[in-house]
Write a structure and sequence with these properties.
CATH class: Alpha Beta
CATH architecture: 2-Layer Sandwich
Strand content: 25-35%
Number of strands: 11
Largest sheet: 9 strands, mixed
Low-confidence stretches: 203-207
Number of helices: 4
């Protein structure tokens, strides 16, 4: 099994084949590893952690919402994050006629080590921006953007930071990877991913390992 962690830059589709008429780049420009496919997607206008694997059952397990793998996102939004908005995100929202699962949300200070995005975000000078961290265990189409818009905070920049494997180990994350860089999972990560294919309870309750300890 070949499994990679890739820091997807802005403007890159989560696939190797270009879309007809699309202005976006593809993974083929960044990865020359045959036989791997994205386990989950990031929109072309989003950035961050993308896991690619040659193992079909693993790809299916990681993307099946019934297994509830938490994903952590860092979101720059237009407007100021309020307690009311955070509570709405945490409790679930009606998006396209379906309620989202309860999420984990908190306000963030502007990240100090954030790589510059190319091109920069379009920012209206008369409106403030702020940051929030959002953790989801489902991955519906453009869900983070739809959720932030539903609470009056349109998304300006979106990065996926980590994927929790829901075991005793740390989440897979972007540490050590600049935009456009990738690496193969190490032996320990490989063993943990293999364990995902064994039967286990679904959507376990309790703390996500993505959530900071009190």
């Amino acid at each position: 099994m070949t499994t990679l962690l890739f820091h997807k830059p802005y403007g890159v589709l989560s696939q190797f084949t270009p879309e007809p008429g699309s202005p976006w780049d593809t993974l083929a420009s960044w990865l020359e590893v045959p036989g791997v496919y994205a386990a989950g997607r990031l929109d072309a206008d989003s950035e961050g952690l993308l896991l690619l694997t040659s193992r079909g059952p693993l790809q299916q397990r990681l993307t099946d919402p019934r297994w509830g793998h938490w994903r952590r996102y860092q979101v720059q939004v237009e407007g100021l994050v309020t307690d009311r908005a955070l509570e709405a995100l945490r409790h679930g929202l009606m998006i396209q006629g379906q309620r989202t699962l309860p999420a984990r949300a908190r306000a963030l200070l502007p990240p100090a080590d954030l790589p510059e995005r190319q091109p920069p975000i379009r920012q209206r000078l008369h409106l403030p921006t702020s940051w929030l961290e959002l953790e989801l265990r489902e991955g519906r189409n453009r869900q983070v953007r739809r959720m932030s818009a539903a609470v009056g905070l349109p998304t300006l920049r979106l990065r996926r930071l980590a994927i929790d494997l829901m075991d005793d180990g740390p989440p897979l994350d972007l540490r050590g990877l600049a935009p456009g860089e990738w690496r193969e999972v190490n032996a320990e990560e490989h063993a943990r991913l293999e364990k995902l294919l064994k039967p286990r309870p679904r959507l376990r309750a309790g703390r996500s390992r993505l959530e900071p300890k009190p």
